[in-house]
């Protein structure tokens, strides 16, 4: 195990969608590195059950629908209850690729831009975009309350850096995560919360079995895909390696691992810049967050 990976030892990680694919790859790597893990997913998959078993003291499953804020709060409270502290690492990984309705389900339950089956909101947007934002806010509150630094990883995609006509909704949610991550760059120096974003290319996971013909439609094959383990290794590095500062957007695909550079200086704010902005636009946020420092985790009742 690399020195960097071993720095996960003793940490607590909360992983949404950790029962399959990329999330499960990270869960396995984190357990191996000595971390304790809360796996927050819709169901205890067979693959996860085989990984953590019934009596694994290092990893626990908590039923979570990431669309429900209360479930995310419960998952953090669960960590406190079973591991004695709120998580140090929060991985917003749960995601869907515009699923269409299954035969026995109401079409309105599922979320596909071109099939256009939804009412007032897109489930794909709630799962892929709104949940990572909610988790980041809850993580900030939990970490400030516990007076410890932490890391939030948002799982985007290389399509968040490009475009997709057939999956425009999915693509838009992944773009949005990148804008959010860049906006949160100052949180590391100001609040001790490093918010970073990982953009995997095509990964061989069950996501591609969501719809019949999906992998053919998007030309998914061994020639272009990487493994969940490749992504998990990049994720661990992104979390523990101090060279990756808050606001970093990291791409991992067949061509390797690369930091995405953007114009503008969000990630390169110098101390003097921070003092200037802190005095103006940041001040209301910092005042609000100051009130959360040292406040014990209280979930829903904790909201101002
Ligand atoms: N597979 C790829 O090619 C690829 C590429 C780039 C990015 N990603 C992203 O990586 C992340 C993980 O995808 P994956 O490929 O491992 O998919 P996957 O389908 O194997 O795993 C997704 C997990 O999310 C869970 N999930 C879905 N909706 C949920 C909800 N409402 N509440 C709680 N959990 C929920 C599922 O139960 C599943 O365990 C997603 O955000 C996906 O968009 C995947």
Label this structure with key terms.
single chain, 304 residues, alpha/beta, Rossmann fold, eight-stranded mixed β-sheet, 11 helices, 8 strands, binds nicotinamide-adenine-dinucleotide, NAD(P)-bd_dom_sf, SDR_fam, Sc_DH/Rdtase_CS, oxidoreductase activity, acting on the CH-OH group of donors, NAD or NADP as acceptor, NAD(P)-binding protein
Mean pLDDT across every amino acid position? 91
Number of strands: 8
Widest beta sheet: strand line-up: 3-2-1-4-5-6-7-8
Low-confidence stretches: none
Secondary-structure element pattern, one letter each: HEHEHEHEHEHHEHHEEHH
Summarize the amount of helix as a percent range. 25-40%
Number of domains: 1
Account of the protein in words:
The protein has a single domain, classed as Rossmann fold, CATH 3.40.50.720. The chain has 304 residues and is of the alpha/beta class. It has an 8-stranded mixed beta sheet with strand order 3-2-1-4-5-6-7-8, with helices on both faces. The protein is globular and about 50 Å long. The structure holds nicotinamide-adenine-dinucleotide.
Task: Please render the helix and strand layout as text.
Elements: H1 3-6, E1 12-16, H2 21-32, E2 36-41, H3 46-52, E3 59-63, H4 69-83, E4 89-92, H5 123-146, E5 150-155, H6 168-183, H7 187-191, E6 193-200, H8 214-217, H9 228-240, E7 249-253, E8 256-259, H10 271-279, H11 283-290
Parallel strand pairs: 1-2, 1-4, 2-3, 4-5, 5-6, 6-7
Antiparallel strand pairs: 7-8
Helix pairs in contact: 2-9, 4-5, 5-6
Bound molecules: nicotinamide-adenine-dinucleotide.
């Amino acid at each position: 195990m690399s020195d960097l990976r071993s720095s996960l030892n003793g940490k607590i990680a909360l992983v949404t969608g950790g029962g399959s694919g990329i999330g499960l790859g990270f869960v396995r790597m984190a357990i191996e590195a000595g971390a304790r893990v809360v796996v927050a997913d819709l169901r205890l998959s067979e693959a996860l059950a085989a990984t953590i078993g019934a009596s694994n003291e290092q990893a626990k499953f908590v039923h979570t629908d990431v669309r429900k804020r209360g479930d995310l709060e419960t998952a953090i409270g669960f960590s406190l209850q079973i591991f004695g502290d709120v998580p140090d690492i929060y991985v917003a990984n749960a995601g869907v690729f515009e699923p269409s309705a299954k035969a026995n389900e109401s079409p309105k339950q599922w979320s596909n831009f071109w099939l256009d089956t939804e009412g007032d909101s897109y489930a794909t947007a709630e799962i892929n975009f709104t949940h990572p934002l909610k988790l980041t806010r809850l993580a900030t509150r939990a970490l400030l309350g516990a007076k410890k630094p932490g890391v939030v990883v948002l799982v985007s995609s290389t399509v968040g850096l490009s475009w997709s006509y057939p999956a425009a909704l999915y693509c838009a949610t992944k773009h949005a995560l990148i804008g959010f991550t860049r906006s949160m760059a100052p949180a590391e120096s100001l609040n001790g919360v490093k918010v970073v974003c990982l953009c995997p290319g095509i990964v061989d996971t069950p996501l591609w079995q969501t719809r019949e013909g999906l992998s053919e439609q998007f030309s998914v094959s061994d020639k272009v895909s990487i493994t969940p383990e490749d992504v998990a290794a990049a994720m661990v590095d992104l979390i523990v390696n101090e060279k990756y500062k808050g606001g970093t957007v990291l791409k991992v695909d067949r061509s390797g691992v690369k930091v995405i550079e953007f114009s503008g200086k969000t990630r390169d704010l110098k101390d003097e810049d921070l003092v200037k902005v802190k005095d103006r636009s940041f001040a209301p946020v910092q005042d609000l967050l100051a009130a959360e420092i040292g406040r014990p985790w209280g979930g829903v009742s904790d909201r101002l």
